[in-house]
């Protein structure tokens, strides 16, 4: 997961001025949304949002839900009580909740009077996904829901990036938590895991000619996750060696190791090196059964989404090289139109990397300014989930 590159301040402020001229409702919220958009672009660098809002508090917390103990980091506004709570979940990155980019965004939201909890998902350190991860996210929500001093009633939600959008949706379906989650803010998520796997392994969507270079990072995550499901120690050792080589050098040749793989290891290797999108379904069926079940259980296409009560804000870049933007479109179509707001970003978002390159060019007026407007609208809707302040 990555976040915005630093961009020219004069450029951003011109864009923000144009945005404010376009939006005539809720002036204070509009202004805050514009400042947050600029602060998101600034990341750890100075911004007007940072200079005009108090620095949030930050503390590591330990909490227990139904006998399950977790750790996380809690970010709180310091000048006024929180107006909403949000569990913020990164994509599958080695530093997890402590990734500097996630920390910067958590502070941005805490300055906006959100109580922000980033739960520890320890397997992310090893680029691994586990069946228990949705429950970990649900427990973080349950913890905040039991803290009325932090979260006003009916103002609790999730912010998630990349693969974690799916985990967040599944967490929100948990029976003990589904009535407590009012919103999900998701960037670059998936709907059907087989489609996502097809895309990051072959670069293709089966139903059209849309193609992008296959994602080496997606392959690494899949390979690392598969290790738990390999029963042959040699398969485990060889695949782990392949992963380490690819982490050091994504272009390295690892074919010389393939001959040492047994049937399970070869099944994983064959899927990740396949270039024919029509073969993906067959190759998935050859995977170890536990890995097949994980894919099935974490696919939103297999969930009863009619039980989902949260309002959904989805943002997805059209040039996403890891999860195709069509996945967010399909997810939105699987939900009630009144429940979902979808923003497809034409140019300024590659997976979850927010950036602007041009200024006073045709691309600025035709693509970048409209993209800024879409991203601003998504932030504006997120701010709308806060409880109103007392008059």
UniProtKB/TrEMBL annotation:
The lineage of its organism: Bacteria, Pseudomonadati, Pseudomonadota, Gammaproteobacteria, Chromatiales. This is Alpha/beta hydrolase. SUPFAM superfamilies: alpha/beta-Hydrolases. The keyword Hydrolase applies. It comes from Nitrosococcus wardiae. Keywords: Hydrolase. One of its GO terms (molecular function) is hydrolase activity.
């Amino acid at each position: 997961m990555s976040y915005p590159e630093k961009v020219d301040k004069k450029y951003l402020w011109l864009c923000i001025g144009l945005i404010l001229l376009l939006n005539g409702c809720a002036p204070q919220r509009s202004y805050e949304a514009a400042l947050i958009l600029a602060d998101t672009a600034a990341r750890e660098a100075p911004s007007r949002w940072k200079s005009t809002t108090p620095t949030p508090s930050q503390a590591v917390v330990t909490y227990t839900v139904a006998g399950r103990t977790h750790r996380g980091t809690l970010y709180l506004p310091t000048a006024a009580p929180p107006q909403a709570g949000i569990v913020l979940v990164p994509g599958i990155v080695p530093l997890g909740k402590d990734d500097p980019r996630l920390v910067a965004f958590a502070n941005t939201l805490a300055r906006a009077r959100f109580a922000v909890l980033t739960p520890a998902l320890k397997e992310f350190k090893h680029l691994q996904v586990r069946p228990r991860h949705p429950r970990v996210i649900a427990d973080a929500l349950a913890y905040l829901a039991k803290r009325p001093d932090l979260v006003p009633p009916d103002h609790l939600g999730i912010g998630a990036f990349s693969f974690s959008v799916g985990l967040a949706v599944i967490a929100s379906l948990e029976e003990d938590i589904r009535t407590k989650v009012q919103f999900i803010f998701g960037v670059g998520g998936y709907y059907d895991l087989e489609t996502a796997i097809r895309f990051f392994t072959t670069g293709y969507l089966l139903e059209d000619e849309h193609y992008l270079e296959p994602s080496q990072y997606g392959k690494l995550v899949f390979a690392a996750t598969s290790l738990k499901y390999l029963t042959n120690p040699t398969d485990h050792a060889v695949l782990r060696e392949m992963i380490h080589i690819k982490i050091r050098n994504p272009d390295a040749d690892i074919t010389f190791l393939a001959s040492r793989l047994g049937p399970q290891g070869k099944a994983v290797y064959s899927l990740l090196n396949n270039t024919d999108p029509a073969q993906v379904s067959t190759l998935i069926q050859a995977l170890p059964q536990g890995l097949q079940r994980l894919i099935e259980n974490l696919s939103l296409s297999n969930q009863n989404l009619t039980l989902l009560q949260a309002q959904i804000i989805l943002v997805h870049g059209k040039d996403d090289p890891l999860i195709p933007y069509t996945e967010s479109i399909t997810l939105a179509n699987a939900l009630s139109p009144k429940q979902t707001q979808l923003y497809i970003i034409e140019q300024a978002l590659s997976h979850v990397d927010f950036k602007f390159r041009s200024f006073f060019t045709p691309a600025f007026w035709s693509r970048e300014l409209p993209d800024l407007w879409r991203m601003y609208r998504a932030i504006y809707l997120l701010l709308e989930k806060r409880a109103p302040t007392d008059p």
